[in-house]
Amino acid sequence: MHPALQISNLAFSYEHAEHPFRLALPSLTLQPGEQCLLTAASGRGKSTLLSLIAGLIDPHAGTIEVAGTNLHSLHGHKRDLFRGRHIGMIFQTFNLLQGFSALENVMAALMLSGQPPKAQHEKAAALLDQLGIKRQAAPVETLSVGQQQRVAVARAVAVDPVLVLADEPTASLDPENAAAAMDLIQQLCREKNAALLCVSHDPAMSARFTRREKLDASPATEAMAVGGAAR
Amino acid sequence: MTDWTIILRSMRARLFSTVTTVATVAVAVALMLVLLTMRDAARRAFDKGGGNMHLLLSRDASPLVSVLNGLFYAGSPRAPIKFSEFESFAANNPLVEWAVPVQLGDSYQARYPVVATTPDFFKLFRPEPGADWAIQGHPFEIDFEVVLGSRVASETGLKIGQWITLTHGFPSQDGSGAGLGHEHNQFKYSIVGILEPTGQAYDRAVFTNLMSTWIIHAFDRIEKEAHAGESDEEHADHADDHAHGHDHDHAVAITAADVTEEDKKITNIFVRVRSREGSDASAALPVLFDRLRRGQGFQGGITVAQPKQELDKVWQIVSNVDRIILAIAAAVMLSSGIAIMLALYNSMEQRRRQIAVLRVLGASQSRVLGLVLTESAVIGLLGAATGIALATIGALIAAGIMKRQLGLTIDPTLQPVAMILVAAGTIALASLAGLVPALAAYRTSVMRNLRPIG
Fold this sequence. Notes:
The complex is a heterodimer.
Chain A: E1 5-14, E2 21-30, E3 35-40, H1 43-53, E4 61-66, E5 69-70, H2 76-86, E6 87-91, H3 102-112, H4 117-130, H5 145-157, E7 163-167, H6 175-192, E8 195-199, E9 211-215, E10 217-219, H7 220-230
Parallel strand pairs in A: 3-8, 3-9, 6-7, 7-8
Antiparallel strand pairs in A: 1-2, 1-4, 2-10, 4-5
Chain B: H1 3-13, H2 15-47, E1 55-58, H3 63-72, E2 81-82, H4 83-91, E3 96-102, E4 107-108, E5 112-117, H5 120-123, E6 135-137, E7 145-148, H6 150-156, E8 163-164, E9 167-168, E10 182-183, E11 189-195, E12 206-209, H7 210-226, H8 232-243, E13 265-266, E14 268-273, H9 284-293, E15 303-305, H10 307-360, H11 365-406, H12 416-442, H13 446-450
Parallel strand pairs in B: 5-12, 7-11
Antiparallel strand pairs in B: 1-14, 1-15, 2-13, 3-14, 4-5, 6-11, 7-12, 8-11, 9-10
Helix pairs in contact in B: 1-11, 2-10, 2-11, 2-12, 10-11, 10-12, 11-12
């Protein structure tokens, strides 16, 4: 069985951007169902890494494999469909579809991963029932913050992904809600046997993870200084 | 859930923008359709002006005046044609298929022109080629019977079986010259028929036979002769009295027997030359046209007009305005296209996040492009549909106003072809307008738009 995530010799840099920086990750492997906390010095570094893993941007060097597939060898709609089917994402601001109901938010994920309309409704409703979302037909923005985060979690795991990427999932929540949300994320990932890569600065987070990694993303000024010395 | 759900939710989430854009498009489509329809209706009214007649003869100053007076009743022809001239023309011209005499100059209530003619007018002449007259009741058969145009009947409420009196001449517009028009109360006309609407000037005309008109002319002549000896002062008093109706002690019954050759005058002759069956063109037409132009057969010459050519001249004058109308319609369409683009583009700022989320959930760039394009096409479609509904109502109102204010009868029915073309054009334009925001959506940087605001 392939690892859920396997990164090797990853390199990426923004050199022409306003705040240039360089990102390097020699190796990171997550087995199916494994949960890992990633801390990063730079905020830019972690969102860039998540974009790379999700296949939204391409690395300059190295490979990223999700469930044995090199995402960056896929092109166009194939890569998008692969992401929709195998990767779930959870965001600090939830990024729910405004104007859509809780049910429709989850159904959208199922639809875009290629599930037939009939199965979408059944699956989404069952999952939201399980998470205790009662007003499934109400516009999602009318739900409480805690409930919105649950819908966002439900949307991420609804497609039975091999990998869930969580980007500061608790930063918008009070400590009580944050703990509940993390309980839910970790429990659901375990249930679905999805690997979880959680990026966070929250110190309360580290106790929840047995595996903790630190991302090495250096400001480009340094990298450029190195480059200058080599010349 | 399908892509349509996403489109509908997206439109609903920006309901105000969606509704105002649809309204903008609808108004543009409606305006365009009404303009095109009115233009088309006007063109058709012009096109069928001459009906199945080839030549219009009169003693007006020019062919154009002849057509405006003879077909549109713009004014009364002044110089008459003797009926004997008509008879000899009709009898001695093998090139002529038919010739119908018409006398204009009298009116009903000073508003509706009287067309005095023969029953041939309804038998041989057609208001437009291939279309027969449709008459409720029957055409006039004997003296003092009249047929009313559809508008005369609808505006006055007159019905078949009722009686009316006609005015000799039109009272002058400025109030001077009281003698120019006067009513003949002792000559009552029986309404025997009412025309179905033709969309032409005939709708506001009253039709009767020549002899009825001649009898009244004979009456006037005899009366004038009887008063010839009176002094000027007395005559002026009398003229006043005269205008209030012929309440004279010497009134005598005037009949067809009193009509002399001098009374038998007409103003126009409708002519159709011989042509092959089913064809409107005729080799004889230029020959006859040329002969008549040289005044052959008419003492003192005749004005000969080809109504189609004269109407084309008028249309050419009008068509400059017509081109401006078309340009306005095109500009309105273009501005509504820009409105769609603007509405979608402005909403792009709000929807970048939504597009980014859809991309993360597995939507490809082309699918997102399709969603935005479809949304703009749907706005175009809704706008076109609403616009067609508005135009249908608008055309009815415009036709009503034109009828009331200008006395023009216009068929307000929208052309199905125009509707389909305008609808298709609108949707195409809407899709085109959607292209700019769709490309912006296509290029949306996913990660940047998912970041927390601030």
